[in-house]
Amino acid sequence: MYYFEKYTLVASLLSTIVVVHACYHGELDSRALSAMAAAPPPTVQVRNYTRPPPKRIALRNVKVFDGSQILPPSTVVIDGDKIGLDDTRVDETVDGEGGVLLPGLFDAHLHPTTIGDLEALISYGVTTALSMSCWPIDVCNSLRGQVGLADFYTAGDSATSHNSSHARRPGFPQDQLIRSPADASWFVANRVGNGSDYIKVVAEPGGMTQAEHNALVAESHKFGMQVMTHVTGFNAYQMAIQSKSDIIQHLPADFPVNETMARTMLAQKQVSCPTLTVDKATVDTYHPAGWTYSTSVQSLRTLYAAGVPILAGTDSNDASNTTTASSGSVGIPIAFGAALHGELELLKEAGMPTVEILRAATSRPACYFGLHDRGIIAPGRRADLLLIRGDPIANISNTRNIMRVWTAGIEYEAVAKP
């Protein structure tokens, strides 16, 4: 009935987990940027929904994933918004039909901008959405705390420079550009003041200098903020490693990460969010010279073999909607929710064991993003739960066979059908 994490998070990483955003394909095709220029500005989302009275619900005949195996059928209790202990006095009983109960899934890199995006995520069992860029801040904040939907967190504006492809995206706030290492102080203070949950930094050719990256990471750590770094290629990946960014988003597709780089990341307690989904889509769509999807897969295998923690993320976005400017996408729409299950399948194709893949979408992002109230099934933890049909350890595609979903104890009934 309990899910126990099988690894220990180093204390120093807990104190300052840092993250930098990556829209992997940011500079590949000017046509995509031009197509975005006419998009109207994003608007604040409004949804009227109050939390229903708390109930104690017994989920009977469910097989809990405990972090390493699927346990025999048992009972899990939802007590209000948390997982409880007492199954003797309940308001409702649910027959789990022998299904497998997983912690709610995380997408550790995506760009939701509407209530509809959050609805799509929760319908696929994604209960926590970690946005890697979003602006304006009032639009971002309107997605927070939406009862009964995916729980939203964001980096807000990303740190980039005036000559960066990211800075040319329509609507990007030009007054937030980094022009020297000294700018790190006001930039980080501004993100903290606006309520960003972590800091995003962009590493790309022709963008910020190594000194500017280093200053942003160091300043973020002073505030105890996580730093995400977006990378667009091998040199950018080296820059992210050298800056000691906490979580490096995307993989290089021009030259593979080597063993020395992987060992350095492990020694510095850095984490990888590969986003194979957008990498494959970028190569397939734009065919950038010298870039191959197999290079990204080789990088992932090197990182995993070295013991670098891997997180599941997709770069999901809606490149066609009216809030494209704040999503950070450049013309490759990736479906919210469904793409996360595809990412798990790509990680399997790349050679990761299914148990590790499940951790990459549940307990591991909870741990490295400091969201210790979720990610495992244990009493007192947030009742974010996904009930599926079939064994995901035997076949990772079984995560698509969604039976029921709960977020903070509230069931979302319009679940996606396989």
Describe this structure as you would to a colleague:
Helix content is 30%, strand content 17%. Mean pLDDT is 87; it is low at 1-41 and 321-329. It has one domain (13-47, 104-372): TIM Barrel (Alpha-Beta Barrel). It is globular and about 60 Å long. Strands 2, 3, 4, 5, 6, 14, 15 and 16 form an eight-stranded mixed beta sheet that branches. Strands 1, 10, 11, 12 and 13 form a five-stranded parallel beta sheet that branches. A three-stranded parallel beta sheet has the order 7-8-9. It has 14 helices and 16 strands. With 418 residues, it is of the alpha/beta class.
Order of helices and strands: HEHEEEEEEHEHEHEHEHEHEHHHHHHEEE
This entry's quaternary arrangement is single chain
Distance between the termini: 27 Å
- Overall geometry comes to globular
- How does CATH name the architecture? Alpha-Beta Barrel
Structure at a glance:
With 418 residues, the protein is of the alpha/beta class. The chain is 30% helix and 17% strand. It has helices at 11-15, 30-36, 115-123, 137-142, 183-193, 210-222, 234-243, 259-267, 276-286, 293-306, 324-327, 338-349, 354-360, 363-368; strands spanning 20-21, 56-64, 74-79, 82-84, 92-95, 100-103, 105-110, 126-131, 151-154, 199-203, 227-231, 247-249, 271-273, 385-388, 402-407, 410-411.
How is the secondary structure organized here?
Blueprint: H1 11-15, E1 20-21, H2 30-36, E2 56-64, E3 74-79, E4 82-84, E5 92-95, E6 100-103, E7 105-110, H3 115-123, E8 126-131, H4 137-142, E9 151-154, H5 183-193, E10 199-203, H6 210-222, E11 227-231, H7 234-243, E12 247-249, H8 259-267, E13 271-273, H9 276-286, H10 293-306, H11 324-327, H12 338-349, H13 354-360, H14 363-368, E14 385-388, E15 402-407, E16 410-411
Parallel strand pairs: 1-11, 2-5, 2-6, 7-8, 8-9, 10-11, 11-12, 12-13
Antiparallel strand pairs: 2-3, 3-4, 6-14, 14-15, 15-16
Helix pairs in contact: 5-6, 6-7
